[in-house]
Amino acid sequence: MKTTIAEVKNYVGQEVTIGAWLANKRSSGKIAFLQLRDGSGFIQGVVVKAEVSEEVFKLAKSITQESSLYVTGIVREDSRSPFGYELGVTNIELIHEAHDYPITPKEHGTEFLMDHRHLWLRSKKQHANMKIRNEIIRATYEFFNKQGFIKIDPPILTSSAPEGTTELFHTKYFDEDAFLSQSGQLYMEAAAMAFGKVFSFGPTFRAEKSKTRRHLIEFWMIEPEMAFTSHEESLEIQEQYVSYIVQSVLENCALELKTLGRDISKLENVKPPFPRITYDEAIKFLQEQGFEDIKWGDDFGAPHETAIANSFDKPVFIVNYPKDIKPFYMQPHPERDDVVLCADLIAPEGYGEIIGGSERIHDYELMKSALEKHNLSLDAYGWYLDLCKYGAVPHSGFGLGLERTVAWITGTEHVRETIPFPRLLNRLWP
Which of 2, 64, 92, 227 stands the most exposed, by the fewest C-beta atoms within 10 Å? Predict the structure, then answer.
């Protein structure tokens, strides 16, 4: 019976064959222990000299790291294994023998590992990171589908900048200028006016010359937009969504979290409601904590966000930022003309902002004046202005950065390990 490591639990006591790679091995006299992986998981194969042919045992002792094999054996439960099962090997068929695999079971520098990212992905911790990333994506689709959202795919090549910044990658679109998308938001707002509740999931690009552990040049975002939805209602959706993906990982990726050494007690508490503080309160708090240089009107950096997050045991919303430090499209606060209806969701444990969201302007004249104030072309944004011109409604939305969220949930220090092939300031290879 041919199967995968993930499915061996269904064949206890039976003989199965698994296509696998040798991750590691050790042997002592008349027994060899093979650490096998097949992409779906890791399992130990035990080869006992007295139970196999001389040829098979000799092969088991000589197989090199990352050689590919067909391994046949009896599945048995093993309480000592984190996986819970092992394979009593009866036969091995060598497919391809690997030589001088560069990533050996020892410490390697980060740059070396990043240069060999195409191979580093095979390791247990990187495998766990990617499995959890996949679970977050799966749970994302499940959550929004259950909530009645429609998936819409915004373009990656655009003619303008949603955030109104200069941190864009420029390219030529035949004889026109074009840019790689830094957000699909404006297009998602248009889609929300057609379908009510929509979400996108795709790559975004920021030409930001940052080297921090929180930043990537290319990253993936989940961007929902909701018609007839207030800022307050959007916050409730955000905390429900984040809680949903965290609980899904806890339920479906327990082994991967254990592999990463994640303290799951910090995740088990991630359930609605999340605490909320205003920007004003955040400034006052930081000043009291000794951040003497921070003043009203400043944006928060990583140390500020970490100090705020450390005061709570759940993600925390910071609401109502000054309008002068936020993008043009945010709805002004009904009672104050200096702040907007927005929020950033700050993850615990120093992982920073994972969501940015707001209620969007839906008044035509207000949107027009906001575009003019930010020196944005009314011609280029004419289609976006149309949303305020034809059946405008109050609407809200947000964007969640996938890699930062994976980093937080997995407890991974740097976002470069939360995406298969990271694009960093000085890395475009492999």
Answer: 2
